[in-house]
Amino acid sequence: MEQHVLVELNAAGLTVTVSGEPGAVAVFVDAVRRGRPAPAPARPTGWARLTSQEAAVATLAGRALTNQQIAHRLHISTHTVNYHLRQIFRKLEIDSRVRLATLAQPNAH
Predict the structure, then answer these.
(1) 3-state helix, strand, coil in the chain (%, to 5)
(2) For residue 67, what are the contacts with CB-CB under 8 A and spacing of at least 6?
(3) Where are the domains of the chain?
(4) What mean pLDDT comes out for the span 83-97?
(5) Is 104 exposed, middle or buried (0-12, 13-18, 19+ CB in 10 A)?
(6) Could you give the residue ranges of the DSSP H alpha helices within 1-109?
(7) Residue 68 φ/ψ, nearest 5 degrees
(8) pLDDT at 2 over 60
(9) Are 77 and 71 in contact (CB under 8 A)?
(10) Residue 84 and residue 70: Cα distance in Å, rounded?
(11) Beta-carbon count within 10 A of 102 CB
(12) For position 109, what pLDDT does the model report?
């Protein structure tokens, strides 16, 4: 299928490189054939948007540890903890550690 699609695109005077999961590539190719833009891939939401380090910071902050305690446990600076908390709050669209504690509870995310 892939070579056939490339032949069709080349015949139309287009040069396209497509890579990714086979299902996503098939959706893209189908959309091109139909003359419609391919749907944007789904963005992760909530807790899934956090990096592993942010998730670790969020979990510890959710357990009411101070920034200094979090820094000590994760072997990072308190400035880095502050940075991660800002990113966490932005990504989760929250503005308090109380709300973070609620979200950090098991099965809350």
Answers:
(1) 65, 0, 35
(2) 61, 78, 81, 82, 85
(3) 2-34, 46-104
(4) 96
(5) buried
(6) 2-11, 22-34, 52-62, 67-74, 78-92, 97-104
(7) -65, -40
(8) no
(9) yes
(10) 11
(11) 12
(12) 57
Give the predicted TM-score (pTM) of the model: 0.60
What are 63-79's pLDDT values in tens digits?
999 999 999 999 999 99
* Cα distance between residue 105 and residue 52, in whole Å: 17
Task: Summarize pLDDT for 17-74 with one digit per residue, the tens.
Answer: 666 677 777 777 777 777 766 667 777 778 899 999 999 999 999 999 999 999 999 9
Task: Indicate the fold that domain 46-104 takes in CATH.
Answer: Arc Repressor Mutant, subunit A (1.10.10)
Tokens of 4: 């056939």
Q: Which residues contact 89 (CB under 8 A, 6 or more apart)?
A: 95, 100
CA distance 6 to 17: 9
- Which position has the token pair 């939401």? 45
